[in-house]
Amino acid sequence: MKLTRPQTFHLKDPNHKRWIEDLFKLHLRNISFGTEVNGDDQNIDGAMVEIVSTGVLNTEFAVTHNLGRIPLYWDTKYIDSNAIVYASTTPWTETQAFFKCSINNAHIRLFIH
To answer: Which helix H or strand E contains 42, and what residues bound it?
Structure first.
């Protein structure tokens, strides 16, 4: 069954319009990380977080994700240098995950899910 794009030009409420359009995209399997870090156009279960500086090499840093659950995985989406980001030994919580980086002061973007 092929779905046709719903007409939303007549809808006055922008939230209702967006809900209809997002539902259509979901049926097309158009899952998106969004265009900004944790922007409103993200429609995937996870958190995109940006860390401007990881600090001293191989030293733990905390990342706040606020997922309300303990995440299982992470993906490195951006890193400004030749480095490795890896999970620390501190247990993750429903609001934070803990990592280390193999170089000083890396700028990274992680998707935590």
So the answer is: none
Amino acid (1-letter code) at residue 91: P
Sorting pLDDT into bands at 50, 70 and 90, what band is 49?
Answer: very high
Tell me which residue has tokens 């992680």.
110
pTM, two decimals, is: 0.69
In angstroms, the CA 27 to CA 101 distance is 38
Instruction: Enumerate the H helices of 5-77 as residue ranges.
Output: 14-27
User: Does residue 56 sit within a domain?
Assistant: yes
Using the predicted structure, report yes or no on whether residue 64 has a pLDDT greater than 90.
yes
Domain assignment present for residue 37? The answer is yes
Distances 20 to 5, 26, 58 between C-alpha atoms, Å: 10, 10, 46
Q: For residue 20, what are the domain limits?
A: 14-112
* Antiparallel, parallel or unpaired: β 85-87 and 74-79: unpaired
Q: Is the pLDDT of residue 9 over 80?
A: no
Answer whether residue 82 is part of any domain.
Answer: yes
12 pLDDT above the threshold of 70: yes
Tell me, yes or no, whether 57 lies in a domain: yes
